[in-house]
Amino acid sequence: MGNLLKIRNGKWVIDEHKEIYQIRNYCKKVNEVLDRNPLIRQKVPYLTEKEIRKVFIINCFRVLLTRSRIATLLYVEDRETYEYFKEILELE
């Protein structure tokens, strides 16, 4: 998980200072699609890069953590996030 997604005071927090090229490109593409499709744009409010970034990162972790066939190894650098997982996974 690195330090991109952490638990702070029981809530998930995303490090907004880390630059990830794929996310910036993804944000650009999302808004291009919405701009070309007025009907979709009417139903979907304008999404800021911060909102798109949050959805993108959470979705990436969700996919990575739910696609295992045998086992999943989760390496957590942040101590508070580690304690959170330790508690919910009931580890010793």
Describe this entry's structure for a reader.
With 92 residues, this protein is mainly alpha-helical. The chain has one domain. The chain is built from four helices and two strands, in the order ββαααα. Strand 1 (5-8) and strand 2 (11-14) form a beta hairpin. The longest helix is centred in the middle third of the chain and has 18 residues, at 49-66. The protein is elongated.
Average pLDDT = 79
Largest sheet: 2 strands, antiparallel
Helix and strand run: EEHHHH
Instruction: Tally the helices.
Output: 4
Shape: elongated
Number of domains: 1
Give the number of DSSP strands. Answer: 2
Q: Name the strands of the widest sheet in spatial order.
A: 1-2
Give the oligomeric state: single chain
**Helices and strands: which structural class?**
mainly alpha
Distance between the termini: 20 Å
* pLDDT < 50 runs, ≥5 residues: none
Q: Whole-number radius of gyration?
A: 16 Å
Could you estimate the helical fraction of the residues in percent? 40-55%
Beta content: 5-15%
